[in-house]
Amino acid sequence: MRRETYNEFRHLCRAHNLAVTHQRQRIFEAVASRPGHYSPEEIYEQVKQDLPSISLATVYKNLKTFIEAGMLREVSLHHGAWRIDANLHPHHHLVCTRCRSILDLDQDLLAPVKLRGKLPSGFKLEKFSIEIQGVCKACVASESRTHN
Amino acid sequence: MRRETYNEFRHLCRAHNLAVTHQRQRIFEAVASRPGHYSPEEIYEQVKQDLPSISLATVYKNLKTFIEAGMLREVSLHHGAWRIDANLHPHHHLVCTRCRSILDLDQDLLAPVKLRGKLPSGFKLEKFSIEIQGVCKACVASESRTHN
DNA sequence: TATCAGATGATAAAGATTATTAAACGATTC
DNA sequence: GAATCGTTTAATAATCTTTATCATCTGATA
Ligand SMILES: [Mn+2]
Ligand SMILES: [Mn+2]
Ligand SMILES: [Zn+2]
Ligand SMILES: [Zn+2]
User: Fold this and answer.
1) What residues of chain A lie within 8 A of the CB of B27, using their CB?
2) Mean pLDDT throughout B99-118?
3) Which of A80, A93, B102, B128 could make a disulfide contact with A37, Cβ separation 3.0–4.6 Å?
């Protein structure tokens, strides 16, 4: 690992009040130094090449830690919940980032998406899916209650 | 169940080449007659009130069948796959509906989303997340190969 | 009503994630 | 640099979710 990379990571951890460990360095790097959107299992396999004794649970735990700290993100809020929709009309969804509740929102509440350039060649566009993320009424209420 | 509802479902099944069974009727109704975005488990619990001997596997299998037929949809393409993103800059994703691969897309390839009306009261907006769904180059290629 | 492809229920298996806990480690202080 | 303390790790079990298998049953058709 380059020394600058090492120091960057060290400072990131300091800034977020996280202890610096070998495992964390490698886990973070396995994600941040490559362009893809990896699964915990893929990250585990990658890190294992350097740290053969690492455990998959450690990967899971630290990914959560990093996400909570804002050092990494998850691609989608929906990975853990298969949810079925009977509404076949084009519409949007309002999703709560706390409780992950989902509400329909009429299509014409948003102006249609406009492409300003070209998509990567070969990609056959089917549709734009817009998700409006935020905190739902119930969660806002319960959080303000907690903080008073 | 109302007779019209029963006939509607019967015709839907005909149109999609699906056998009509009690289980399917109740599973479909459990989703389509209520406004929410339910999980298989929730649907199972609902149907069980009418058909106590139904199996959870039947619910899963038929939800898949309905989705494949286009009678229901899934809220997100990402369930079951926790994917980590190290790109913290605002950006969009290109998602393949076949292989579910994910590519980053620069933010300014799309014009910013415009709200035309009001969000439901109490919802605290955090961000708009746009996903561009379609078929990726690789899947387009493999599908055209299959059909020649 | 008899036939049969397809659907169901029971169950096992697989896969993904979280909980538990003793041992090891990193940061801090001396 | 060694002692201390709180945190992190690895191993493992447990839990949840989803899929596979297969014998039995049912709906559709003649
Ligand atoms: Mn919906
Ligand atoms: Mn991304
Ligand atoms: Zn909420
Ligand atoms: Zn693809």
Assistant:
1) none
2) 94
3) B102
CB contact under 8 A, A122 and B103: no
Name the domain count of chain A: 2
pLDDT in tens, A119-144: 999 999 999 999 999 999 999 998 88
Q: CB of B24 under 7 A from strand C?
A: yes
Query: Contact, B27 vs B44, CB < 8 A?
Result: no
b/e map of A55-80 (b: 16 or more CB within 10 Å)? eeebbbebbeebeeeebbebbbbbbe
Positive or negative: CA dihedral A110, A112, A116, A121: positive
Q: Which of A79, A109, A137 is the last residue of a domain?
A: A79
> Does the beta-carbon distance from A81 to B79 stay under 8 Å?
yes
Note whether residue A59 is domain-resident.
yes
Residues B50 and B73 reside in one and the same domain: yes
Are both A41 and A99 inside the same structural domain? no
Determine contact: B110 vs chain A, CB below 8 A.
yes
In a domain, A84, yes or no: no
